[in-house]
Each structure stands twice: as C-alpha cells, then as structure tokens.
Design a protein that fits this description.
heterodimer, A: about 325 residues, mainly alpha, two-stranded antiparallel ribbon, 2 strands, about 0% strand, B: about 240 residues, alpha/beta, Rossmann fold, 6-stranded mixed β-sheet, 4-stranded antiparallel β-sheet, globular
Amino acid sequence: MFRTSLTTNLILICLLVVLAALPPFLGIYYGNMVTRLMILGIFAMSLDLLIGFTGLVSFGHAAFFGLSGYILGIVMMDTETASIYWVLPACLGVTALASLVIGWFSVRTSGIYFIMITLAFAQMLFYFFNENTALGGSDGMFIFAKPTLAIGSWNPIDFEDHHTFYYVVLVSLILSYLGLRRLLNAPFGQVIQGIRTNEDRTRALGFATRRYKLVSFIIAGTLAGFAGFLEAMHTSIISPAHLGWHESGNVMMTVILGGIGTLHGPVLGAFAFGFLHDWLQDVTEHPTLYMGIFVIAVVLFLPRGIAGLPADIARWLRRKPPGDGGSPP
Amino acid sequence: MNDAGIQPLVAARGIHTYYGASHILHGIDLVVRPGETVSLIGRNGMGKTTTLRSLVGLTPAREGRVEVHGMDMTRAAPHRIAREGIAFVPEDRGIFPNLTVHENLVMAARPGRDGRDDWSYDRVLKLFPRLHERVGNLGNQLSGGEQQMLTVARALLTNPELIILDEATEGLAPLIRQEIWNVIREIKQTGMASIIVDKDLKALFRISDRCVILAKGQVVYEGTAAELAASPEVHMQHLGV
C-alpha cells in the first residue's frame, strides 16, 4: 500500500493551507510563479508514477506535456472562444492516444533502451513542431484566447483572472495527488509496484506485465498532458521547447530532487527547483552551473530527496555520539 | 497402476536452453503427472533452476518443447503459463517488500484454471499461523523464513495444479525449515503436484514419488525415491555424497 506517515500528512496539509492562503500576499510575478510550479508539480507527479512506481525511466515525458499544449493552440488558432467541455477532452484524448502509440513500442524494451526509445519519440515530436512553420516553427505559437467554462451566458469560473486560475491549478494539483494515491492503493497500483520490484516474479504470478506497464504509461502521459494543458492556458504560449529533451531532463531532475516514489516529493522538488533557479538568476550569471552543484549535492547527501529530509534528520538526531553506551576505559 | 495413459501436467521434451551464447540445458526430458511429487537433484550449476525457469517461461527453451496440459507452451509468456495452473516459488523468494503481507497475498489470489477455489485467504493463513500474526507488516519487515512462507502462501492462492519450489528451505533455521517441509507435506496430501529442488536429500526422499538427477544440463538418472535412496553408488557418482 502507498502510505505516508502522519507527520508527512500534517506537513502536506499545512503546506496546502499556506498555498491556499498565499494569493492575496503574492504579487503578479510570484503568483504566476507559484501557479507554474504547481503545474510542474502535477507534471513531475505524472513522471513519478512511471519512474518511482512502475520502474520505467522515461526521458521523453515532456512530449505529452508539450503535445497537449499544441493541441490547445491548434484548437484555439481560429477561434476566439471555445468550450473547455470539449477542448480539454480533445487535448487529453490526443495525448492519451500518443501515449498509447509511444507506450506500445516503448514497453517492449527496458532499461537503457526504454530511455532511448522514449527520448527518440519525444525528439521526433520536437522536430515535427520545430520545423512546422504553420505552427510557428521554433518560435512556437501564441494562444490568444482561453477556453471557457461558460454554459450559455453563465460563466462560473473566469480563467483569465490570475487568482481564479491559481485556485483552479491548486485544486487540480490536489485532485491529481489524491487520484494517483487512490490508483496506487488499488489492485492495479499493487501490480505496477510489484513490476518495479521484480517484473519476472509478477509475470510468474500470472500478470501480463507489459499490459500493466502500458496502462501506467498512458495514465502518466495523459496526466502530463493535463499539466501541459494548464501550462499553455497559463502562459498563453506553446513552443517546441516544451517537448524537448531539456524539459524532460528538468522534470526528471525535479522528481529526483523531490524524492522518487513519494508522489508529494516531486511537487516539493518543483518548488525547490523553481525558487532556487529564480534566486540563482538574481545572484549569479551562471544559475545552471550552481543548479548542477545543488542537484549533485542532493543526490549524494539526500538519496531520498527532499521528501526524505524529515526522516533523515530524525535518524541523524537519534544517532548516539560515538562511545555512547560504552564502558569508560 | 500403469500411468502411461495419464496426460502429463507438465512435460519438457528435449529442451535446450541458453543464457546468451552459453548452452545450459542439453535436451532435458522431464514429465510431471497430476498429483505427483518430483525432486530435481544435482550439484550446483547443473541446470536445475534453468530447467524450472524454462518450464515457467522465464527463460524459454530455444529447442525442444514444453507442454502444459498437452499444449505447446515453449514460447508462451510466463503469465500465460501461470494461468494454466503452474505456480513458481523461486529461490530468491521474491516477495514485494513495499506491500503488506495481506497485499502480497490478495494481489495474487485467483481461482484455478478450472474455477477451483480450494485455497482461500483464510485457509492459507491457517496453514501459516506466523503470517496470520503479521498480515499488516510490510514484506521487508519479515524474517527470511516468514518471507519464504509468504512466497509459498502467495503461490497457493493462485490455486495451482502444480507448485514448483526452488530451494524453498535454503538458508533457513532448522526449525523454520522443518515447518516448511511440514507445509510441503500438507500440500502433497491435497493432491497437488510439485517439483522440488532442495539440498536436503533425506527430506526429498521422504516426500518424493520420483527423483531426477541432472548433471551438466542433462538428465543422468531417473527413478523412484526409494530406488535412489537405496543406491549410494548413484549418489556418489552424480552428487558426490
């Protein structure tokens, strides 16, 4: 079963309360930044389902993130208004279909070959959009209008309002987390965790593991597509960079920073990554260099990531100093 | 009773299995009939585990044929063979450490091939009272013996017709080992067929109907347990004991 300790649950609830209370105190810059980091948190959780729970290290996960944004851009290209009731299913449907096709080939491989095949598919999509002048080529495309939730003249939620959109993303983050948690505690989740631990054993128990891996790949891809949809709605721009290997590398780094196989860790990782990068940009001309040093330090000294930090500190505090308990000479 | 007419549950017919370029099994023939207990004996590295892995599809044979219920399953995926009523208890135990005992058991539970549901969750826990006490514990919180019991229990919950036990008592304390042998005996009494690989020859002779000795990837001896127990020269020649 996927569990979190009581302490972790309390910390997460406190963080959620803080996130819910923050908007009035954040300016537009930090409000937008936190919104983006919550979206990246959803994106990173989707990758954690693959890496941390199914044992599939995908290096092309951004393909689904960017593809969904492009579908939104294409749908909104010639219209000033569209209903989210069909735009969102269209974006997620195309992403799910792409996940099915890419996953169908990818889950037939494992290890380094899986990494390479997912990267290859993502790069194919990258070059497709990069070379496609009708879709803006390497500059990408602007999304001038956002789909609306309106039914007739009644619009319950205005996505154009920054604060409102902030809360839409926050609710999406919470629902994504709870949904994944429920999935992991269902029989399906137990099987994919079995696959990660020992695929041969899971097959010998009678499970068609390839099918389970494919379903996990589709769910992760579709959730990444949902994050990409929110990102495109938020920034009103989509470009090939959103589905390139650089973006895939960033989200993988986020998962590693936050803590693989923890679900909430990748969200913490997204915030740590985002705020650190923002701060480094202010204080140095080489933020990427220092980010690299930070990631190396986390990997070396916090193998369980930021999510494992409280447990690591507790263990460190419990450790007796050398010689304690021994008899004096 | 002449059992030549009984269809084998599992049959390996001249199988050759390789790990990459290494030729491990050289034409193994092995037949297990319903209700029969067969011991696979041999020194280390003679191909016992590879034979078992070929039977369950984890390391498919390149030549020869593996039949389950008379159907050719040589190239079948392991999950298909498992669904034909073959349960495999590997030597490395292979419990799922991040799942509880309860979850380890229920994830595998299903009716047998013909809809039989002889082994229920409650019956399995009755067979392994130690597991009953630890249903809420994670797999990695169990002792080696308890992990082995969990693996056997999980295999039983698939309601198999044949259970394959690879070194099920390896590395366990004598008392726990005895407990496992008692369970194997109880399983035999239910009429379930089994293939057992173990180093404890005396225990094997007591429980087996038939013994097969492997050497260098070939069957070098096959006979009843009583015949083999009474043939010290065969032990010396093939097993060095």
